[in-house]
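Checklist before submission:
- one chain only
- standard amino acids only
- sequence pasted in full

Submission:
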Amino acid sequence: MLLNTNIFLTYFSFLLFLKKKIMSKNKYYDLADNAILLDGFDDCIVGVSESFGEESRYIYSKKSIISKLKEDMSYEEAVEYYYFNILGGYFGSQNPIFIQDILD
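Returned file contents:
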């Protein structure tokens, strides 16, 4: 009986660990239901917008997005890609919001 209890507690602890890990990674998902997520840029999310009468939207850091794009292209290409493909895109009524990081 003691062995079964230990196995159960170990399994339960593992499940709690997994749930915590998943929830911390997806901490914004429940706050902006049906909002547009930019694929591959989850780590660039800095918050979720709230406004009376409006649906919530994800807020992204422009600086973080460009830094991430620079991993695969030059700075100039990253900036051009950001303006043309990300900022210039309309993805729906819950289009992402982008902030200029000036308070660093």
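Reviewer check: Residues 11-25 have pLDDT under 50 and may be disordered.
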